[in-house]
Amino acid sequence: MRRTKDIPSNTERGVATMPKQANQKLKLLYIMQFLLDETDEDHTITVNQIIQKLAEQGITAERRSVYDDLELLRDSYGLDIEKRKTKTHDYYIASREFELPEIKLLVDTVEASRFITHKKSMELIKKLGKLTSKHNESLLRRQVHVYDRVKNSSEQIYYSVDAIHEAISNNRKISFQYFDRNFKKEKVLRKNSGLFIKSPIALTFDSDNYYLIVYETKWKEYSCYRVDRMQNVTVLPEERELPDAAYDIANDLRPMFKMYGGKKADMCVCFSNELAGAILDRFGQDIIMVPDGEDSFIVHFKAAVSPTFLSWLIGFGTRARIISPKWVIAEMQKLMKQVEEQY
Length: 343
Hints:
Elements: H1 10-13, H2 27-38, E1 45-46, H3 47-56, H4 63-76, E2 81-85, E3 89-93, H5 100-112, H6 118-129, H7 134-137, H8 156-169, E4 172-181, E5 187-189, E6 196-206, E7 209-216, E8 221-226, E9 230-239, H9 249-253, E10 263-272, H10 276-283, E11 289-291, E12 296-305, H11 307-314, E13 320-324, H12 326-342
Antiparallel strand pairs: 1-3, 2-3, 4-5, 4-6, 4-9, 6-7, 7-8, 10-12, 10-13, 11-12
């Protein structure tokens, strides 16, 4: 629209005008970012410092407007801003969505996770550092030393997990290839390089590995696949085949040891008293431990009998003894004989 000639402009009237700044509307966001990045209980910021930092971003601000913005962020937005009175008024973020001990715990978990590559661990830790001040971020740059923990070397697992979640959310089957490794460290695809087509139920984490739980319609039971051994995971258009709604997946998986399946048995095992901690770690506080004399106790539990389960018991040596069922005792004797013959 053209200016009407009989209405003088501000310049013509001698009225001072402030040039419009495109990023002036970002002032409130910048102030919030300064507080989140720069401050904590040990590091504060003054209004003058905020004004200076805004100026570095090309934003002019008066003290009164900064006070108003701080009040708005605290009272209306809910940011936990505290004021500490010294020679000046110092401001800082008193609490955050994640406190420093919580972030440290997350960092330690990421660093210790076997299935996360070293590169991805560093990326995730850097992102977690953004949840605290830059001063505290330096405290997160530490390495958790977990001995005998080998990091995964492939990032394929992240894409596989994403595809699996997508399939579960959309009630779809998936296809994938599954592999082992030979002594040359080469991949050896199962099923003659063919595809596995499965109905994904859930993802679970056990013994430092991610596992996909699928429902096997043919046998009407669950089975597990290690996600880091899956490749070319593809979401299919076919709907999943699901178990009866009343079927309890937890009861089916709980007897497994390190996610290895096998014929299920109601076990009765005698353990030495010194193994009480190990049994509680494995079965939880609800397990019933019945005293058997002064030096041992008996435990009843359900287990999927596999070489992995039997090896777990063998690891306790003479401090663990199977009482029943007899067929599991026979399996244990068979395994021990095979091991003995090897030596």
